[in-house]
């Protein structure tokens, strides 16, 4: 049986998004979508998705709340009390607000600061992700990472979704291993036996560049001799499980919720309902289902 795959077979989406992604659209016209990494120059819009100065503003002059801003040291999340403060508003104390001094102290200790869901509250990221969602006909979201010099990053892991890593400042070294051939051969998360992987390719990503990472590629990172800030724009295509669930739910609407499989003829009832389900699935308007899944992906905020 051929393994199921969600990797598109046509570069049409990449061609549509070329001007959003790169200063020189020709650099991405042959992007190895789903098969290998690539590096190219960011478009002005993508390069301006956020700035280093934005981070200082968010720490000192915003109402950011944990866990929109959080931090991780090695593989361990930094406790919220080490990042936040209590703010009193009209005599009412409220906890969880980001404390700039505490966050900078955690950076000095070697933690990486993570700023989540940029696409929901930061206008440049919101616009980039809105356009990416339309062009790729998929969900799109953005997360920022702020790492101190010499930080080793997470251990080898795999992310779901196609990632566009935009280097904002500093240089980040990426160690890139295999790209899985099919979804059934990998799971998102840490790679428990990285010693079994081939030797990694290395990419030193500099400010103004974009690194494309295909869905599931194993990787880890290292910050060099200056701090690094990058934004990851994740493009996540509709999951086949979600498509199947939508189709089955549409068919189940024909089965009354109070209908039962009586003990006397349960086996026959089960066989009958499965036969009816198979027949109903065969009658599903596939083109309409594909349009519905596309529309839902584009209109739903975020990358999940």
Automatic annotation (TrEMBL):
Alphabetical keyword list: Iron, Metal-binding
Q: Which residues form the JmjC domain?
A: 113-252
UniProt keyword Heme present: no
The record's annotation in Pfam families points to: JmjC_2
Query: In this entry, which stretches build a coiled coil?
Result: none
PROSITE patterns linked to this entry: JMJC
Cofactor(s) the protein requires to work: Fe(2+)
Concerning SUPFAM superfamilies, the annotation shows:
Clavaminate synthase-like
Source organism superkingdom: Bacteria
InterPro entries listed in its UniProt record: JmjC_dom, NO66-like
The protein depicted here goes by the name: Cupin domain-containing protein
Annotated organism of origin: Streptomyces kurssanovii
Recall the taxonomic lineage recorded for the source organism: Bacteria, Bacillati, Actinomycetota, Actinomycetes, Kitasatosporales
């Amino acid at each position: 049986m051929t393994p199921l795959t969600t990797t598109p077979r046509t570069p049409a989406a990449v061609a549509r998004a070329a001007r959003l992604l790169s200063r020189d659209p020709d650099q991405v016209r042959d992007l190895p979508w789903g098969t290998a990494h690539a590096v190219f120059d960011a478009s002005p819009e993508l390069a301006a998705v956020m700035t280093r100065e934005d981070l200082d503003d968010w720490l000192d002059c915003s109402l950011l709340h944990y866990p929109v801003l959080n931090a991780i040291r090695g593989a361990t999340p930094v406790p919220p009390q080490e990042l936040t403060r209590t703010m009193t508003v009209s005599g009412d104390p409220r906890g969880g607000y980001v404390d700039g001094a505490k966050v900078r102290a955690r950076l000095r200790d070697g933690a990486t600061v993570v700023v989540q869901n940029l696409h929901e509250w930061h206008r440049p990221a919101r616009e980039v992700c809105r356009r990416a969602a339309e062009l790729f006909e998929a969900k799109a979201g953005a997360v920022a990472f702020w790492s101190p010099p010499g930080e080793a990053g997470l251990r080898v892991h795999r992310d779901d979704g196609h990632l566009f890593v935009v280097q904002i400042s500093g240089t980040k070294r990426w160690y890139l291993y295999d790209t899985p051939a099919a979804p059934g051969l990998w799971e998102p998360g840490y790679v428990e036996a990285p010693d079994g992987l081939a030797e990694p390719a290395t990419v030193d990503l500099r400010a103004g560049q974009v690194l494309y990472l295909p869905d599931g590629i194993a990787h880890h990172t290292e910050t060099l001799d200056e701090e690094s800030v990058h934004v990851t724009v994740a493009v996540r295509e509709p999951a086949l499980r979600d498509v199947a669930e939508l189709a089955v739910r549409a068919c189940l609407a024909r089965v009354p919720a109070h209908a039962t499989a009586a003990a006397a003829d349960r086996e026959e009832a089960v066989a009958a309902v499965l036969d009816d389900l198979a027949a109903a699935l065969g009658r599903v308007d596939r083109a309409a289902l594909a349009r519905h899944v596309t529309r839902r992906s584009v209109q739903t905020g975020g990358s999940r």
